[in-house]
């Protein structure tokens, strides 16, 4: 009985995860190392990877900062009523429920060339949709809950006794945060950052809608994979996909490592 | 310096910045979609939805999403059970592998399935010879959805199983219950909240899935065109009102599922 269940579990993993993963490796190397080099050496591939890198850095920085603050307010703020807090708390999760394509559509509707705000910005020569800022906003939207949801439970668990003690002793809020709160939420923040990086690295739907997928201008690594597949250039698509997969696997390893650190803590 | 940092104005500036960021980034866009789809009146909204391509896409998404969630409920419960209850070589490795679909870009997931099952691969060729069509047909969409939502049920059930005390199981055995009876009367009820909430999460995620599906579905209207791909097509063909109408239906569905899930979780906590 026991053998059967373990065997079945292995079969599920093998079919659903391991076989597809190894297939992408063999496909990326189907033209040998030179083929992989050609796929990645294309100017559009280099540009797409650079775009993805830039988005990951900017989005992770912004959402780390705002995510920590939002979590602090949602748990600690006394200036927000309890009702408002629980309302805000449920709104935080909404991006999880929104299809990425709809997330992209929202930004096109709100800031696109036909909208009031977008039209105004266009007049001043600042393009949001079908340009870099829109892609940043789309990724920010999609990744917003990750940091908040990692930090909030930790804050709730540790309570605010120590923080109160610190401020009674006369430490002002920044110092309290740095000396008391930060050491306790540190690993949760790092974990949230890794999650944010993984999600913004792989964001596809929202970015595809907002960017218009213009080669060498607004194309990211994931939308390049899509375009290569549409053009029946599967080998090149696998090359770029392999780079993304290696990054995600690396992030997964870091996540495992942090989980262990958190337990020790 | 101290006076500058502890100045009241800073606190207010900070608070308003964070709240403003939150409202502009999250609340405003979601309201925007609802406003836009009703901006031309109720009739236009109904008209956009009565387009057979649109409502067929929504129904197809529901059907396939439900299928994928069901599959995940079954294999997810099994995997969670095996990973917690048994010790065997490779267990930790498999346990970390569970999260792979979360970490992997969905477009990469779609490409993997395409490579594995597509024309030219040996599975694809074999299936074709047997008269089965997978890629560019509905089975491929279900597989893509199962792949993307794989971790949900497992990660929801695992903590519950960890909490379940061995003594309860042993008590049931000692009192003469058969293995099957112990499973159905002791173990399954304690896993149930996790199975339900994990399955619901998987369902709402499957409804929303785009990246993996767009690559493996043939996107033929009425047959393999799911709602998210339909929305993308409408945006591309410059029909934001039609896109917004279907989006509103899909969003309302996902929000309802999310709300129901919260209710289930609160119930579980109280019990």
UniProtKB/TrEMBL annotation, chain A:
<feature type="transmembrane region" description="Helical">
    <location>
        <begin position="130"/>
        <end position="148"/>
    </location>
</feature>
<dbReference type="InterPro" id="IPR035906">
    <property type="entry name" value="MetI-like_sf"/>
</dbReference>
<dbReference type="InterPro" id="IPR005667">
    <property type="entry name" value="Sulph_transpt2"/>
</dbReference>
<keyword id="KW-0812">Transmembrane</keyword>
<comment type="function">
    <text>Part of the ABC transporter complex CysAWTP (TC 3.A.1.6.1) involved in sulfate/thiosulfate import. Probably responsible for the translocation of the substrate across the membrane.</text>
</comment>
<feature type="transmembrane region" description="Helical">
    <location>
        <begin position="87"/>
        <end position="110"/>
    </location>
</feature>
<keyword id="KW-0813">Transport</keyword>
<feature type="transmembrane region" description="Helical">
    <location>
        <begin position="54"/>
        <end position="75"/>
    </location>
</feature>
<feature type="transmembrane region" description="Helical">
    <location>
        <begin position="234"/>
        <end position="255"/>
    </location>
</feature>
<feature type="transmembrane region" description="Helical">
    <location>
        <begin position="188"/>
        <end position="214"/>
    </location>
</feature>
<keyword id="KW-0472">Membrane</keyword>
<feature type="domain" description="ABC transmembrane type-1">
    <location>
        <begin position="49"/>
        <end position="253"/>
    </location>
</feature>
<dbReference type="GO" id="GO:0015419">
    <property type="term" value="F:ABC-type sulfate transporter activity"/>
</dbReference>
<keyword id="KW-1133">Transmembrane helix</keyword>
<keyword id="KW-0764">Sulfate transport</keyword>
<dbReference type="GO" id="GO:0005886">
    <property type="term" value="C:plasma membrane"/>
</dbReference>
<dbReference type="Pfam" id="PF00528">
    <property type="entry name" value="BPD_transp_1"/>
</dbReference>
<protein>
    <submittedName>
        <fullName>Sulfate ABC transporter permease subunit</fullName>
    </submittedName>
</protein>
<dbReference type="InterPro" id="IPR000515">
    <property type="entry name" value="MetI-like"/>
</dbReference>
<comment type="subunit">
    <text>The complex is composed of two ATP-binding proteins (CysA), two transmembrane proteins (CysT and CysW) and a solute-binding protein (CysP).</text>
</comment>
UniProtKB/TrEMBL annotation, chain B:
<feature type="transmembrane region" description="Helical">
    <location>
        <begin position="210"/>
        <end position="231"/>
    </location>
</feature>
<protein>
    <recommendedName>
        <fullName>Molybdenum transport system permease</fullName>
    </recommendedName>
</protein>
<dbReference type="GO" id="GO:0015419">
    <property type="term" value="F:ABC-type sulfate transporter activity"/>
</dbReference>
<feature type="transmembrane region" description="Helical">
    <location>
        <begin position="20"/>
        <end position="45"/>
    </location>
</feature>
<dbReference type="GO" id="GO:0005886">
    <property type="term" value="C:plasma membrane"/>
</dbReference>
<feature type="transmembrane region" description="Helical">
    <location>
        <begin position="243"/>
        <end position="261"/>
    </location>
</feature>
<dbReference type="InterPro" id="IPR000515">
    <property type="entry name" value="MetI-like"/>
</dbReference>
<keyword id="KW-1003">Cell membrane</keyword>
<dbReference type="InterPro" id="IPR011867">
    <property type="entry name" value="ModB_ABC"/>
</dbReference>
<comment type="function">
    <text>Part of the binding-protein-dependent transport system for molybdenum; probably responsible for the translocation of the substrate across the membrane.</text>
</comment>
<comment type="function">
    <text>Part of the ABC transporter complex CysAWTP (TC 3.A.1.6.1) involved in sulfate/thiosulfate import. Probably responsible for the translocation of the substrate across the membrane.</text>
</comment>
<comment type="subunit">
    <text>The complex is composed of two ATP-binding proteins (CysA), two transmembrane proteins (CysT and CysW) and a solute-binding protein (CysP).</text>
</comment>
<keyword id="KW-0472">Membrane</keyword>
<keyword id="KW-0813">Transport</keyword>
<keyword id="KW-0764">Sulfate transport</keyword>
<keyword id="KW-0812">Transmembrane</keyword>
<comment type="similarity">
    <text>Belongs to the binding-protein-dependent transport system permease family. CysTW subfamily.</text>
</comment>
<dbReference type="InterPro" id="IPR035906">
    <property type="entry name" value="MetI-like_sf"/>
</dbReference>
<dbReference type="Pfam" id="PF00528">
    <property type="entry name" value="BPD_transp_1"/>
</dbReference>
<feature type="transmembrane region" description="Helical">
    <location>
        <begin position="57"/>
        <end position="82"/>
    </location>
</feature>
<keyword id="KW-0500">Molybdenum</keyword>
<dbReference type="InterPro" id="IPR011865">
    <property type="entry name" value="CysT_permease"/>
</dbReference>
